[in-house]
Specification:
The protein has about 220 residues and is α+β, with helices and mostly antiparallel strands. The protein is built from nine helices and four strands, in the order βαβαββααααααα. Strands 2-1-3-4 form a four-stranded mixed sheet, with helices on one face. Helix 1 runs parallel beside helix 3, helix 1 crosses helix 6 and helix 6 crosses helix 7. The protein is globular and about 50 Å long.
Length: about 220
């Protein structure tokens, strides 16, 4: 095995996409193993690789890491994207947890029944526009380029990922947020993120029917 982190998950966004974003933003190349069958997943469990019988799985620095939050905080700390002290880290954690709550709604959206889709989309828009985006708009109004300590951090990566994910479903969602519009442009032009946003990068497309079928086949008992 090379020195690159190795990511094991389905060939789609899911709970691994923020890990891909964070590694890419840090300029770290990684390898991926895609689960395509339930047998592959069951073998990982049987071999004792998955601590809680769940993916994502990230092999990094000799560890087999599970639990998305633990993986992300380790990567953020390792690549100096986790603030300069405990207070900055706490702020990053709060921002990240808030963004994660919003992203959870987007994560489950493709799996909702057709009759619930419109209602769920309205809920995503309502939460984004009235609960989450106003917080970050206010922070950025103070003239800083980044959310915490005016230095690029894990929180910025999570926010640009969330903005783009919400925009895919609600294109005009940032119309009332000029600071977030400017933030989006700044982040999208950072060299590592710009590279990740190019075609052919490890960034995954929005979930399609094939991805949903694969996920249900692998994980549904």
């Amino acid at each position: 095995m090379s020195g690159k982190p190795r990511l094991t998950y389905c060939n789609g966004r899911g709970r691994m996409e923020p890990v891909r974003w964070l590694l890419a933003a840090a300029g770290v190349e990684f390898e991926e193993v895609f689960l395509e069958t339930r047998e592959q997943y069951e073998k990982l469990i049987k071999d004792g690789v998955l601590m809680f019988q769940q993916v994502p799985l990230v092999e990094i620095d000799g560890m087999k890491m599970v639990q998305t939050r633990a993986i992300l905080s380790y990567i953020a700390g390792k690549y100096n994207l986790y603030g300069k002290d405990l207070k900055e880290r706490a702020l990053i954690d709060m921002y990240v947890e808030g963004i994660t709550d919003l992203m959870q709604m987007i994560l489950v959206f493709p799996f909702s029944p057709p009759e619930a889709k419109e209602k769920n989309l309205d809920s995503i828009k309502d939460r984004a526009v009235n609960r989450y985006f106003p917080v970050f708009e206010k922070v950025l109004k103070h003239g800083q380029d980044f959310l915490v300590g005016n230095k690029f951090s894990w929180a910025d990566v999570q926010l640009i990922e969330a903005i783009l994910a919400v925009e895919e479903k609600i294109p005009a969602v940032l119309s009332g947020f000029p600071q977030l519009q400017a933030f989006k442009i700044r982040m999208s032009n950072m060299p590592t993120i710009k590279k990740f946003l190019q075609p052919g990068s490890p960034r995954k497309p929005p979930p399609d029917e094939c991805y949903i079928e694969t996920v249900l086949k692998i994980f549904k008992k």
